[in-house]
Amino acid sequence: MGDDHPAEVQASSSCDWPLLGLLVARLRLRPGQRLVDLGCGTGGVGLWLARAHSVHLTGIDISPVAIGLAAARRPYFLPPGRADFRVATMERTGLPDGCADGIVCIDTLGKAHSPMRALLETRRLLKPGGRMAVTTARRHSAPSPWAERAAAVGLELVAEDARPDEPAMWRRLYRLWTDHEEELRRDVGDARTDSMIREARRTLPTLDARRAFLITLRRGSDPSGEPYATA
Ligand SMILES: C[S@@+](CC[C@H](N)C(=O)[O-])C[C@H]1O[C@@H](n2cnc3c(N)ncnc32)[C@H](O)[C@@H]1O
Fold first, then answer.
1. pTM of the shown model
2. Mutate to test the pocket of ligand 1, among 108, 163, 199 (most ligand atoms within 8 A of CB)
3. Cβ within 8 Å of residue 29, ≥6 positions away
4. Residues with Cβ within 6 A of ligand 1?
5. Tens digit of pLDDT for each residue in 43-77?
6. Which domains are delineated in the chain?
């Protein structure tokens, strides 16, 4: 995928060097704090950030296979005891209230059964003052829903950083898939290839109108920490 892509991270997402830079700048983690990676997949993004910030990592993913692979990658990034990975959903992580100084959620919130419920869960997990960084995309013409969405779950909108190179990255990836369909069939089998080619054909025509962002949300320093209704 070229020089913009940190090979070590092996992300199953749009994560590139510019995004890693934005995440470091926006999360503002300090050594010894805890980062939660929601929808961590095989763990590379959270592991890279936890090493860069010298923090502890908890990775959550719905897929036991992804969690097994993430745990196996831990020794390449962090010493023993600095990361744990759990099978759970981002809507119901099972983690304790106020355990996270930072939360990252890369190309995953849109896959939640209920994105608002997942955002309420992040509000529960964040310590007062803690930040969450989440990738998102919308059509060129659509207004940002994030100030309203953040307020609805008791979080503040800190920043909405444009990722102007993100649609081109998907275009390159989808063209690689369609140009190399036969090799894909050999490497990953017909079922997986059919689904990848379907995704490429469905999504390629929408990319010209796509605008991608990194959204940073913050839990205010409210000492009461009263829960928000999850209705
Ligand atoms: C596009 S991948 C991104 C993985 C990782 N964030 C990265 O950047 O490489 C989306 C991940 O979300 C996970 N996922 C989907 N729905 C989920 C849910 N409701 N709760 C937790 N994880 C979920 C999938 O299993 C998958 O690993």
1. 0.93
2. 108
3. 35, 49, 53, 55, 101, 102
4. 11-13, 15, 39-41, 44-45, 60-63, 66, 89-91, 106-108, 111-113
5. 999 999 999 999 999 999 999 999 999 999 999 99
6. 7-164+209-218 (3.40.50.150)
